[in-house]
Amino acid sequence: MGKLLKVFGWILGIVVLLVIAAVLILPQVIDPNDYKQEIVSKVREQTGRELQIDGRIDLSVFPWLGVETGAIRLGNGEGFSGDTFAAVKEVAVRVKLMPLLSRRLEADTVALKGLRLNLARNRDGRGNWEDLAARPGTAGAAASGGETGAGRQHGGAGLAALSIGGIDISDAEIRWDDQRSGQQLQLTQLQLESGAVQTGRPVDLALKGRLEANQPALQAELDLKGVVALDEAAGVVDVNDLRVQLDASGETLPGGKLSALLQAAIAAALDGSRVEIKGLRLSAAELDLSGELQGRNLAVQPIFSGNLALAEFNLRKWLGDIGMALPAMADPKALTRVGAKLQLSTEGSTTRIDNIVARLDDTRIDGSASLRAGAIGFNLNLDAIDVDRYLPPTQADAPSAGAAPAAKPTAPANGAQNAAAKPAAPANGAQGATAEAPLYPLETLRALNLDGVLNIGRLTVNKLLAEELQLKVKARDGKLSLKQQIRKFYQGGYQGEAVIDSAGKSPRTLINAKATGIQIGPLLKDLSGQDRLIGKGGFSANLNTSGNTLGAVKRTLGGEFDFRFEDGAVKGFNLAQTVRDAKARLSGQPVVKSDEPLQTDFSELTASGSISKGVISNQDLLAKSPYLRVEGAGKVNIVAEDLDYKVRAVVVKSAKGQGGEGLKELEGVTIPVHLTGAYARPSVTIDWDKVLLESQKEKVKEKIREKLGDKLEKKLPSGLQDKLKGLFN
User: Fold this and answer.
1) Higher confidence at residue 250 or residue 11?
2) Domain assignment of residue 331, yes or no
3) Are 298 and 319 in contact (CB under 8 A)?
4) In terms of Cα–Cα distance, which of 285, 280, 252 is closest to 264?
5) What is the pLDDT of residues 15-71, one digit of tens each?
6) What is the pLDDT of residues 499-552, one digit of tens each?
7) Among 177, 279, 303, 489, which residue's beta carbon has the most beta carbons within 10 A?
């Protein structure tokens, strides 16, 4: 037995010596470069592509089984431009020999230098890599590799452990050319480094490179770091501590440049069935976006959902930091507090945003929105917003377009006289400079696809105040519709619709508006700074116009309107005082100074009219007060900004109320007033000759009666008597 063991010992020793001798001798007697042509032929047979090996192949066996090569190039697929699909300048791989005997792969750092990878898709949508995956034998290989778990265990072909010192890819370039879309990407100066790669253990990864794109034109420096953990048994890969620094520049970026940092932790299934992103955070100067996202069905039709939060930040400062200049605004503190929280979900071409809670300065916004194949829908609620804060600043020192001064009566002389000096013509030069500025961004309007509702608790715009407002917005095929309903509008209500149709060459605008129960005084005060008219009532208007400049809109304005106000006054002149002053002057008496307010009261004021080519026509103005009845008719030309309007004021016989005292002698007398010139400051002419003639009519008749007497009247023929009576009546 001992001799037998000795024999076995000698045999084993000889075998070991033979193995050692083979390890030492084989690299000396076998040159792998002798097999280059065979390798090239085999690759051509399996892939249909040319393999070119320019440098030497160096082989080492002990203690490392290693291969080092020079330049290697694999040709491109048929039908694609360029000769090279992939190329590398140097490759070095070393594996420890002895651990292989126990099915353990222990490799040194895998080095790849000068990688060039050209990926492309042709006009038919075929990629230049697809033929490699579809070559005959691939399926068989997959089938043979797809044995049952028991087969793999008993066959013993699998590795018990894997250990790689690291991966070092340097001076690499990856190019993408999509001939179908025209998009081209180029990743250059690519460098990838990893820590030790071991079975079941996370791997540190670091990647740097420069990205260039043509759609949109963009250049970016990319710096990525993370820890990757692969669990092949569970079919998942985790990327923790992911940090991506991006420094980009391009004309499409706000301000031409952007610097951003992305942080996240990603867990994904290897089969593409799901992905989960936690701790998502995107930082760019003042901007700080955070949240969590989940995705599923990634390989077929990706579906994403999650929560996002935009921390409150100074949007004005952030835009300035990235080089975007904001237009001047009335409030320099506008856009300094902006933030939002929301729930996001996407599937195919549909994106929904729910549970929006946002902040815009002092405005709180909540609601939902959606995007479906380019169509935007929304239902948003705003508690209060002052739009004037975001409009261009107004000229505080600009003169007010005041109304006409009070008419001052003068003694009658040679017919009608001016009661006020004629003003200078309005300076239209400045207005003309802006009249041709476009009112609407037509291309934007034509591209809009909107359907939404805005509910606003309190809205201020152009100093007008509206409360409990609902705005319904629809836009499609170049047609924008805005329906407004205001529950509280200067103690009344308002509803209307504005339609802008920009589908044609020149936009058309339609406006329907109706207000009821409003106090016109506070409205005018907020709108223009002057409450020239006060009273409660309403108005309606049905207007249409065309054109995209202020001048065109004025020239083509048409439609109808009416209004009615009660228990109010027209400020700026006191018609009763004017009549009393005229009476005093006519009778040669001194004018008594009055402390009455400079306004003309009315119990009712109504009018209606039409508009054609920018000219307003009105024939039924009626104002009633306890002592006056005023009728008016005429035209106002908003293109020329002038008017030609006639007013007839009649003193009521039972004159009471404001200024009614002392007007008995003018009862029934008509006072004709003619307004002409610029409607901002019109010339007011009163025909005092007619006033005098009519006011003295009764006195003349009385004197005739006294002189002729009833006897003379009886002696006249009956026909002449009738004419005489007609003269007196």
Assistant:
1) 250
2) no
3) no
4) 280
5) 444 444 444 555 555 667 777 788 888 888 888 888 888 878 777 776 777 778 888
6) 999 998 899 999 999 999 999 999 989 987 888 889 999 999 999 999 999 899
7) 489
Q: Are residues 717 and 628 in the same domain?
A: no
For residues 564 and 687, membership in a common domain is answered with yes
Classify residue 415: in a domain, yes or no.
no
Give φ, ψ of 214 to 5 degrees.
-110, -15
Question: Are 120 and 208 part of one and the same domain?
Answer: yes
d(CA 132, CA 129): 6
**Is the same domain home to 703 and 680?**
no
Instruction: Give the count of alpha carbons within 13 A of 93, CB side only.
Output: 8
Q: How many domains does the chain have?
A: 3
Q: In angstroms, rounded to a whole number, what is the distance separating the alpha carbons of residues 260 and 279? A: 16
Please check whether residues 707 and 645 belong to one and the same domain. Answer: no
Quick one: 574 and 715 in the same domain? no
Residue 317 lies in a domain: no
Per-residue three-class SS string for 357-423:
EEEECCEEEEEEEEEECCEEEEEEEECCEEHHHHCCCCCCCCCCCCCCCCCCCCCCCCCCEECCCCC
Residue linked to tokens 């080092």: 68
Query: What's the CA gap between 276 and 292, in Å, rounded?
Result: 8
Residue partners of 44: CB distance under 8 A and separation at least 6: 50, 51
Based on the fold, state whether residues 582 and 675 are members of the same structural domain: yes
Judge whether 535 and 569 are in contact, CB under 8 Å: yes
Which residues form the domain of 113? Answer: 25-128+160-215
Using CA atoms, how far apart are residues 102 and 354, in angstroms rounded to an integer?
Answer: 57
Distance CA(181)–CA(183), nearest Å, equals: 5
Three-state secondary structure call for residue 288: strand
Average pLDDT, the chain: 80
Give the pairing type, strands 450-461 and 385-386. parallel
DSSP3 helix / strand / coil % (the chain, rounded to 5):
20, 45, 30
Least confident interval from 14-23, 317-326, 437-446, 644-653: 14-23
Instruction: Please tell me whether residues 625 and 705 are part of one structural domain.
Output: no
Report the share of the chain in percent with pLDDT over 70. Answer: 77
pLDDT tens-digit series, residues 356-398: 999 999 999 999 999 998 899 999 999 999 999 998 887 653 4
Instruction: Assess if residue 41 is contained within a domain.
Output: yes
* Strand 683-686 relative to strand 464-476, pairing: unpaired
Average pLDDT (102-109) is 78
Task: Give the residue from 169, 197, 215 where a domain finishes.
Answer: 215
Domain end (from 215, 230, 258) = 215
Does residue 531 contact residue 524 with C-beta atoms inside 8 Å? Answer: yes
Which residues, 6 or more positions from 245, have their beta carbon under 8 angstroms from its beta carbon? 221, 222, 223, 224, 260, 261, 262
